[in-house]
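$ fold --in a.seq
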Amino acid sequence: MYKTNEEQEIISIDEFKNDWWEKVEYLLVDIREEEEIASAGGVAGAYNISMYEIPDKIEMAPTWIICLLACQDGSKSEQLVKYMKNNNYNNMFAIQGGVDSLVEAFPELRS
């Protein structure tokens, strides 16, 4: 299992590429609105839930697997990770640079 520091909130694209991609079990969560996904494109294999739905459904958040959150540019996912960690969900991390950086590094994830 990949070791993370509870204080760590962000996973860089290089860290994702070197330490996570096809090596560790995780859940990739796209927190963008449906309209954003429709206009900018989705991420293959990602679970989609709007960041605005999460506070009302926080009890449904998985605790048994590491969740990597991504918005379009990484800014909203970083905020959401702080919120989740403040609510004792220490298995949440943001992808630095969001979906933009992720699909640039891994074009095969664009859907």
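$ fold --in b.seq
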Amino acid sequence: MVLPIKTENLTKIYKIGGNEIRAVDEVSLEVPKGSIFGLVGKNGAGKSTLILMLMGIVLPTKGRGAVLGYDIVKESLKIRENVGFMPEGFGFYEDLTAEQNLVAIARIIGLKKPKERVQECLKFTGLWEYRKRKYREMSTGMKQRLGIAQLLLKDPELLVLDEPTSGVDPDAAREFRKLIQELNKQGKTIFISTHLLYEIGPLFTHIAVLKNGKIAIQGSISDLREKLMIDQGYVYEIELSDLSQVIVDRIRSLNGVKKVVPEVDRLVVICSKPLAPTLLSILKDCNIELFRLVKPTLDDIFRKFSG
């Protein structure tokens, strides 16, 4: 099966004043079909450079890459024809309305029924009632949604978005998340670069953490959470009554228990391996009100692997 995005040792080196700057360094990436894939990293990590190479706008120094099966060097035009790409910042005519901008683009890309398709895309993104508003009069959130509408004109199977929530307010970010979720339900693969995890991080099914141009780690969110728990410990949070020192000592003596923190009506147990059944068995007579495994958040993963 052809992956939406696949790279092998993709590298971009800039030579500045006799020095070599490795903006992207030996990046090997695989984006599963149907995923919402987050390329996350601090500003300057190389995210935008990598995306520009994927879109065939910047040539790699070495390495290989393919988007929808098209070579990023030899078939870059095919990539841009078939991928919905939204770079950071928007490129619309300030004095045209939302509808006029999209109709002009639809005609440029050769859609057979441009007005009908524009209507569909404006309605999907919630902009139909604002279709007569000039672009310069639109809020940042509305401009963002217009950018999504423009991507959808050709109904691409892959969307590539570079820092799409930069500068938008919380309400606009929430509307953006709803749009992305709906598009993903339709079967589209969505590749998003960001450093603002709190805004769109919860959407991601997979991530790659980019640090100083290199992939620090990549994989599904569930696999990365499991990896972090293996590295740092499985943390169980338990709310209960009737906790005795005998029970605490018994838990401390278990093979695999690293630390036990007893509090009033609460117990935190940190283990080197999963011990839920054993803990529940020991605590069965302690009137357990809550028993949960505290899973690492996306922020935890990002901090661990981005430095």
